[in-house]
Amino acid sequence: MTKVNHSDHNHFLLRSQARDEVITVLKAEKIDLALLEAKYGFVTPQKVLQALQRDAIQGKSDVFQEDIYEKPMVELDKLVEKQRGTHRRMLEQLLMVEQAHKQALYKLEDEKRNHGEFMRKSDEFTNLLEQERERSVANVFVVIS
């Protein structure tokens, strides 16, 4: 078995790293520009996108695991559903308030009608009392005279 000295080890390590970087660059050159734009979300010169993709590959991140537009669309769909639910609840509350308002109006109209009846009966009673008082006063004057 041969002994590997420190300089040979470093040379082998550097060579391995250089080979990995060349492979990464070659992979980045073969990747479709549309996929890169979908992943990073912007349109830039091809070399910049390739460099970003190369860095992602070197960083051992999942390549093209999802389109960056997919997550915002899912979130937007959730927001739309939440808004629909909120809108539905708001309409239900509005209907309840409208019904309570109608009920209050009916009660007020009923009270107004009852008050009108009471005032009419009260006026009739007052008129009867005044007529009775006038008769009594007339009878007292007839008796006195």
Largest sheet: none
H and E order: HHHH
Query: Which structural class matches the secondary elements?
Result: mainly alpha
What percent of residues are in strands? under 5%
Radius of gyration: 47 Å
- Proportion of helical residues: over 70%
Helical segment tally?
4
Low-confidence stretches: none
* β-strand number: 0
Report mean pLDDT, rounded to a whole number. 80
Distance between the termini: 159 Å
Domain Cortactin-binding protein-2 N-terminal: 17-135
Pfam families: CortBP2
Keywords: Coiled coil
Organism: Ameca splendens
Give an overview in words.
- InterPro entries: Cortactin-Actin_Reg, Cortactin-binding_p2_N.
- This is Filamin A-interacting protein 1-like.
- Pfam families: CortBP2.
- Keywords: Coiled coil.
- There is one protein chain.
- The chain has 145 residues and is mainly α.
- The relative contact order is 0.04.
- It has four helices and no strands.
